[in-house]
Amino acid sequence: MISILIATRNGASSIGRTLAALTEQVDPGEPFEVIVVDNGSEDHTVQVVEGFLEKLPLKMLSEPTPGKNAALNRALAEPLGEKVLFTDDDTLPAPDWLLRMRAA
């Protein structure tokens, strides 16, 4: 299992594109999950992420303590796959990103 961790704060304008790119990944040959940690967003980030609950194997967490490190540490406290990948809420992973990361 591959776990992809994304911390976000007020990322409503960008995280949808990131999650959409993850829906288009080439099959990496093993299951993957996406864990998004909302770090106290004051926009509609949570609603954008919730829109992908049926499109991705997605888990949404919340971390009220400000800071990306606090958000990522919250995700790291969850049961995770054997491989853990980090990405940002404003990146556009190429369709073969998971396949290449698994091969590495």
Low-confidence stretches: none
Using the alpha-carbon principal axes, give the shape. Answer: globular
Distance between the termini: 15 Å
Query: What share of the residues lie within helices?
Result: 25-40%
Largest sheet: 4 strands, parallel
The strand count comes to 4
Radius of gyration: 13 Å
Task: Give the class from helix and strand content and strand pairing.
Answer: alpha/beta
In DSSP terms, counting alpha (H) and pi (I) runs of 4 or more, how many helices?
4
Q: Which whole number gives the mean pLDDT?
A: 95
The topology string of helices and strands comes to EHEHEHEH
Strand share of the residues?
A: 15-25%
Describe this protein's structure.
This protein has helices at 15-23, 45-50, 68-76, 97-103, and strands at residues 2-8, 32-38, 58-62, 83-88. With 104 residues, it is of the alpha/beta class. The longest helix has 9 residues, at 15-23. The model has no long low-confidence stretch (mean pLDDT 95). Strands 3-2-1-4 form a 4-stranded parallel β-sheet, with helices on both faces. The two termini are 15 Å apart. 30% of the residues lie in helices and 24% in strands. α2 (45-50) links the parallel β2 and β3.
Core attributes:
four-stranded parallel sheet, alpha/beta, globular, 104 residues, 24% strand
Nutshell version of this structure?
This protein is α/β, with parallel strands linked by helices and 104 residues long.
